[in-house]
Design brief:
single chain, alpha/beta, five-stranded parallel beta sheet, 41% helix, 23% strand
């Protein structure tokens, strides 16, 4: 089945978990992906797994400056048929262990980042494109 034939999808947080699983599925079904991640080891591994049908970018969803890199990738790709805002961060521990810095980091990665990414990338979505936000 080639549901993604000639489609280009950008997936933030695409070097592990369900983001990587989705990227692999899109590639297996004829599409191309641009995925982001933060871990150098996962970035390298994902490049090998996706091959020439995947572009893997080191990018932190919590960093507003990183949005420009995503816009450039979307421009270079000729636009996007899909956008999956999947990157996320959690500070694990008891409520007493989660301090203001940890909370701010979670909000930056899970709320502010996806909103800024969506705002910047919306003009680069092709007609009929799909948007998925994982929360």
């Amino acid at each position: 089945m080639a549901r993604f034939e000639n489609k280009r999808v950008l997936i933030t947080g695409g070097t592990s978990g369900m983001g990587l699983a989705g990227a692999k599925r899109i590639v297996a079904e004829g599409g191309r992906v641009i995925v982001t991640g933060r871990s150098p080891d996962r970035i390298d591994g994902t490049r090998r797994e996706l091959g020439d049908r995947g572009q893997v970018l080191a990018n932190d969803a919590a960093d507003p400056v990183g949005v420009a890199m995503l816009v450039e990738a979307a421009n270079n790709a000729g636009g996007l048929d899909g956008l999956w805002l999947n990157a996320g961060y959690a500070a694990l521990g008891t409520p007493e262990e989660v301090d203001a810095d940890a909370f701010d980091r979670m909000m930056a990665a899970n709320v502010r980042g996806p909103m800024l990414q969506l705002a910047a990338l919306s003009d680069h979505l092709k007609e009929g494109a799909s948007i998925v936000v994982t929360s």
